[in-house]
Amino acid sequence: AGPKAIIKNVDMSEELQQESVDIANAALEKYNIEKDIAAHIKKEFDRRHGATWHVVVGKNFGSYVTHETKHFIYFYIGSLAILIWKS
């Protein structure tokens, strides 16, 4: 396993949190470009859990989003921040 995920803010079941980290790690193994990493995570969430998921991946961004209850996570893997939410 790569670097440990550090969860910063979350409104999501433990099971979905773990799935988020696993999907993100798989994307990081496959892609280098942030946009591609985000696209992989989004498509996987839409496929597994229905539309509509949104994903932001990067090292420096602010955010303010509205999400469905129990469908939000913001975490770091290494220096990369990953924000995933459903609306």
TrEMBL record:
Q: Which GO terms describe its molecular function?
A: dynein intermediate chain binding
Q: Does the keyword Transferase apply?
A: no
Q: Which InterPro entries match?
A: DLC_sf, Dynein_light_1/2_CS, Dynein_light_chain_typ-1/2
Q: Entry's PANTHER family?
A: DYNEIN LIGHT CHAIN (PTHR11886:SF35)
Keyword annotations from UniProtKB, A to Z: Cytoplasm, Cytoskeleton, Dynein, Microtubule, Motor protein, Transport
SMART domains from the UniProt entry: Dynein_light
- Subunit info? Cytoplasmic dynein consists of two catalytic heavy chains (HCs) and a number of non-catalytic subunits which present intermediate chains (ICs), light intermediate chains (LICs) and light chains (LCs).
What is the protein name given in its UniProt record?
Answer: Dynein light chain
What taxonomic classification does the UniProt entry list for its organism?
Answer: Eukaryota, Fungi, Dikarya, Basidiomycota, Agaricomycotina
Q: Where in the cell is it found?
A: Cytoplasm, Cytoskeleton
Q: Does the keyword Transport apply?
A: yes
Homology family: Belongs to the dynein light chain family.
CDD domains from the UniProt entry: DLC-like_DYNLL1_DYNLL2
Pfam families, alphabetically?
Dynein_light
State the protein's purpose.
Acts as one of several non-catalytic accessory components of the cytoplasmic dynein complex that are thought to be involved in linking dynein to cargos and to adapter proteins that regulate dynein function. Cytoplasmic dynein 1 acts as a motor for the intracellular retrograde motility of vesicles and organelles along microtubules. May play a role in changing or maintaining the spatial distribution of cytoskeletal structures. Also a component of the nuclear pore complex.
